[in-house]
Q: What sequence folds into this?
């Protein structure tokens, strides 16, 4: 046992000297060797701390391949020994992700494994840790890699930052006529994964900071008016309002086939409307289900009020 300890001490001293000499190749080999020595002694926290510091040191000296290897070893240790995503671990993984050049092939493996590991931890959604997804989203946003950032923001549960990023995305990469479409797709996707609060926060943020969107409601984009009342219908679980909305805004909704697919999922999740298996189409199916459900979620007064509000006050 003492010989073993002595061997580790000698390796630690060699590592210290290699860092002083700036011998990065030897340092990488020693980080790797010490990791396995510590792991064999069940000193997993010590092993991961070594890998984290080593990765940052190698990134700092532009030894990115060696640094990425240590990051993947860090994940290997998490996969084998850790079943909880703490704030500290999310911070560490986010920092590693930040330091990796975004063109590195190892980045995809690191990202996927980190999300998969987190998804298997206690109390974490199947899409992975929201805190971790937020870190990745912010890293990509900093690099102006908006599509990658957007994908992670969907699962981050931070609607405000999502809205801010989406504004920059549409301004730098979109066309003026797509301002409403960027928002619509994001809101519908968030609702499809049951992130109601994030959808509402993102909608409110985006509509306030995009100068071409007039303060509302009513807004100067028909489909944004649709989203405003859709969020209300979802929050209150009002099938009749949802049905009226989909019926009145058919021309806008049919501009993108994906919108109908998302709405079909939303109708199933929040209003119990069975998905369309064959003909009739989404709108016809929705109307049929309204008659089946009849007046289950509204009174006569609220039905008339909702209908008047939509027809007279908007668009």
A:
């Amino acid at each position: 046992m003492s010989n073993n300890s002595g061997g580790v001490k000698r390796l630690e001293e060699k590592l210290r000297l290699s860092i002083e000499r700036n011998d990065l190749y030897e340092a990488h080999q020693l980080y790797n060797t010490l990791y396995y020595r510590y792991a064999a002694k069940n000193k997993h926290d010590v092993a991961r701390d070594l890998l984290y510091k080593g990765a940052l040191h190698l990134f700092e000296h532009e030894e990115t391949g060696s640094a990425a290897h240590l990051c993947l070893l860090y994940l290997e240790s998490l996969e084998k020994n850790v079943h909880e995503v703490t704030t500290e671990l999310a911070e560490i993984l986010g920092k590693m992700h930040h330091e990796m050049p975004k063109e590195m092939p190892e980045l995809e493996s690191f990202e996927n494994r980190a999300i998969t590991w987190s998804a298997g931890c206690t109390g974490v959604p199947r899409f992975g840790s929201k805190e971790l997804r937020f870190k990745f989203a912010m890293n990509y946003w900093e690099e102006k890699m908006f599509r990658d950032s957007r994908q992670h923001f969907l699962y981050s549960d931070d609607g405000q930052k999502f809205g801010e990023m989406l504004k920059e995305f549409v301004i730098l990469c979109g066309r003026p006529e797509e301002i409403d479409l960027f928002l619509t797709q994001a809101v519908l996707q968030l609702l499809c994964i049951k992130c109601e609060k994030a959808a509402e926060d993102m909608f409110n943020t985006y509509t306030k900071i995009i100068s071409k969107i007039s303060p509302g409601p009513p807004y100067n984009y028909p489909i944004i008016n649709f989203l405003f009342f859709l969020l209300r219908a979802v929050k209150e679980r009002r099938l009749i309002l949802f049905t009226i909305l989909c019926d009145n805004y058919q021309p806008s909704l049919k501009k993108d086939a994906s919108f109908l697919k998302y709405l079909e999922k939303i109708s199933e999740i929040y209003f119990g409307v069975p998905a369309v298996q064959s003909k009739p189409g989404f709108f016809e199916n929705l109307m049929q289900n309204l008659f089946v459900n009849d007046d289950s979620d509204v009174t006569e007064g609220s039905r008339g009020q909702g209908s008047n509000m939509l027809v007279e006050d908007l668009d």
